Amino acid sequence: MSIKFSDHARKQIKERKIPVNRVNETVKNPERKIFSSRNRKLRQRQFGSKILEVVTITEGSKITVVTAYYL
Q: Is-above-0.85 flag for pTM?
C-alpha cells in the first residue's frame, strides 16, 4: 500500500498540528471506514479522547490523503 499526501493535506495536517505518524496509522489500520461521495473513504481512529478522521481516495494500490482533522 502506497500512501501519498495531496498538497492540501500536507498544509492542513501541518496547520492542525496532527502528527504524520497518526495519519499513517489511521490510513493503514482504521477502526472505522465510511464510504463517502466522489469515491472517497473516511477513515477514523481514536487517539486518547480525540477521533482522527482522514479523507482518502483509493486508486488501485495507491491511497491519496485528501485531508485530516480531529472530530
A: yes
C-alpha Rg value of the chain to the nearest Å = 11
Helix then strand count (H, E) for the chain reads 2, 5
What domains are there in the chain, each with its CATH number?
2-70 (3.30.2310)
Strands (E), 1-71: 2-5, 32-35, 40-47, 50-59, 62-70
pLDDT above 90 as % of the chain: 94
Whether the Cβ atoms of residue 71 and residue 11 lie closer than 8 Å to each other: no
Report the 10 Å Cβ neighbour count for 24: 14
